[in-house]
Specification:
Elements: H1 3-21, H2 34-37, H3 40-47, H4 51-66, H5 71-83, H6 87-113, H7 120-133, H8 149-166, H9 171-185, H10 194-206, H11 211-235, H12 257-267, H13 273-276, H14 278-290, H15 296-304, H16 307-328, H17 333-339, H18 348-367, H19 370-410, E1 422-425, H20 434-441, E2 446-449, H21 456-459, E3 462-463, H22 464-471, E4 475-478, E5 482-486, E6 492-499, E7 505-518, E8 524-536, E9 541-551, H23 553-556, H24 569-576
Parallel strand pairs: 1-2, 1-6, 2-3
Antiparallel strand pairs: 4-5, 5-7, 6-7, 7-8, 8-9
């Protein structure tokens, strides 16, 4: 292998590490709002609206209901979930954006500061610092959830900055850069933190050629948009019905809790804080301050005599502090204060880039020593494993429940469903929502919650009592103890799934023959069926059982995902039918 090839591989190796590090994204499922937004196609069947009408309605609702300019946000989110039904493809888009961000980030630094081969160690140190700071979370994760909108906003701003740097004398490219910047501003508010960064970069590039004319659009446009937001919040969104707006978490909260929330959100960028929480925060402070060879003291000493590193430090501080500041005075401060150190909100994604620019000199020192390289490899491996475990844990709760319904649908388990079919089931995950059944069957399905609760107060849908009333079936038998409803000639089905933590299990759809209720409580006693279709994950096939009476309710009353080895003998018999 010649020297040229070796050099190319050496340059590519850090990016290969990035590609591997973020690979768990490809194996993750939908989380948070994505679980419902991904059902946009199904939800629209019930409203008879077009995608364009839904986007307009959602955008107007957020603008005049909470003062948030989420215009491109809804164009992007609803379009991607409407046209792409594959979870893997959506996750691949996320994966591509996340990996592209670090590549573009490095290109910005290389072009802005003219890093050459001698500085390659610094670039590798920046990448490693960034990867150490990225920690997946079970809630409010900016990468795994919320349609990766924060990585998208970051990408738009990074592309805007890179275009300005590389094509500084091209007016058309300048306009494209400005348009990308505006697009980010009307996508998510965190885009505003890039305003001072872009302005400082434009000033440095054009300082000998009237920089203020280039700066004005990047300063004036966000200022006008921000003043418009203030106007909306002050004079439009506060109504008698919603005195705090339709989304109170978007309101400003200036109080003492803001300081504590700021510390929690800033600390979220510290490697492993998500897992070790406050103990790591307590232990790392003396390490950073006093450990002589790799301390913050030594880091500052390096910055002292290097203007380039000082400028990087300034950008790093802006990327670290400004996102934390925005979150700390928003309504989300409440959640941060309650959860304490180790908690974080979506801005942690941008903060990781700030952390990388602040602490990469320490990492570069470690890279110059053999033991230091081994330590970094160990830390990166641990962080990768911890992130992969988060994905695995979330999948057992959310991904597998969706997958088994989708896979069973592909095998034709819903072929008998029609418009107006009643489906009795326990809703345990968003994948059990009636939007999902409509999305898979392309029909308006009516779901019936089997818990004895007022389901209408939760999501304006039915519970089983509402369904039995609407179906209009008269009791077949009524005595002092039981009420039996004959549904054999009605378009009614029962569905349920049981899964282990690895996603193995079964999903069934059964035609209901009759339902028995306890007279005084209206609790379900039994659901009898003679026609059952069972989809098993191991065989990926559907087994049909007919002309055999079976009570479904003992199996359906399992409301929590269990490992198959923990199922009762009765349930094992059901699986083997």
């Amino acid at each position: 292998m010649n020297i040229c090839v070796k050099e190319k591989l050496k340059k590519l190796f850090p990016f290969i590490v990035v590609i591997v590090f973020f690979s768990p994204i490809l194996f993750s499922g939908y989380l948070g709002d994505d679980m419902y937004n991904s059902l946009i196609y199904g939800s629209m069947l019930y409203t008879d609206t077009s995608l364009f009408e839904r986007i307009i309605a959602e955008s107007k609702g957020w603008i005049f209901g909470s003062g948030r300019l989420f215009i491109f946000n809804w164009i992007y989110i609803y379009s991607i979930f409407y046209f792409i039904q594959s979870v893997l493809i959506v996750k691949f888009i996320c994966y591509t954006i996340v990996c592209a961000n670090i590549v573009i980030f490095i290109e910005i630094i290389k072009n802005l500061f003219k890093f050459d081969v001698k500085n390659s160690k610094y670039l590798i140190a920046i990448i490693i610092s960034y990867l150490l700071s990225v920690q997946f979370s079970k809630t409010h994760d900016p990468i795994l959830a919320f349609a990766f909108i924060v990585p998208l906003v970051t990408l738009l701003n990074f592309l805007s900055i890179l275009l300005i740097i590389k094509y500084k004398n091209n007016f058309i490219v300048y306009i494209i850069s400005l348009l990308l910047f505006i697009l980010a501003l009307i996508t998510y508010e965190l885009a505003y933190i890039f305003v001072p960064i872009i302005i400082s970069i434009i000033y440095c590039i054009y300082k000998k050629n009237k920089p203020f004319f280039k700066i004005i659009p990047f300063l004036l446009i966000p200022l006008v948009l921000f003043l418009f937001i203030i106007y909306l919040k002050a004079f439009v969104i506060q109504t008698d019905e919603h005195p705090n707006g339709t989304y109170p978490d978007s309101n400003f909260n200036f109080n003492l809790r803001m300081i504590y929330a700021f510390l929690i959100q800033t600390a979220a960028s510290v490697p492993f804080m998500q897992h070790l929480k406050v103990w790591l925060f307590v232990l790392i402070i003396p390490f950073i301050i006093f450990f002589k060879n790799f301390s913050l003291y030594n880091c500052i000493k390096i910055y002292k005599d290097n203007f380039l590193l000082k400028y990087l430090l300034g950008i790093g501080l802006l990327l670290l502090i400004l996102p934390s500041l925005i979150i700390s005075f928003s309504g989300h401060q409440h959640h941060l204060v309650i959860d304490g150190f180790g908690a974080s909100y979506l801005s942690s994604y941008i903060q990781s880039f700030g952390f990388a620019l602040i602490f990469f000199p320490i990492i570069s020192q470690l890279l110059s020593k053999k033991n230091g390289v081994l330590l970094l490899v160990f830390l990166l491996t641990v962080n990768f494993i911890l992130n992969a475990r988060i994905v695995k844990s979330l999948n057992s709760s959310f991904k597998f429940s969706r997958e088994i319904i989708v896979n069973a649908s592909k095998e034709g388990i819903f072929n008998n469903f029609n418009n107006g079919t009643y489906v009795f089931r326990f809703m345990r995950q968003p994948s059990d929502y009636f939007w999902h059944y409509a999305q898979l069957t392309k029909k308006k399905i009516k779901t019936c919650e089997m818990a004895n609760i007022n389901q209408e107060e939760i999501d304006a849908t039915y519970n089983y009592i509402n369904c039995l009333t609407e179906i209009g079936t008269k009791p077949l038998i009524r005595n002092n103890k039981f009420i039996v409803y004959d549904l054999s000639k009605k378009d009614t089905y029962a569905t349920h799934y049981v899964l282990d933590k690895k996603g193995n299990g079964f999903y069934f759809v059964a035609k209901i023959k009759n339902i028995t209720l306890e007279k005084y409580t209206n609790n379900i006693i039994s659901i009898i069926s003679e026609d059952i279709k069972i989809y098993e994950t191991k065989t990926k096939k559907i087994k049909i059982i007919d002309h055999e009476v079976f009570d479904l309710f003992p199996v359906m009353s399992i409301n929590k995902t269990k490992e198959l080895k923990e199922l009762s003998e009765y349930e094992k018999v059901f699986i083997q039918l």
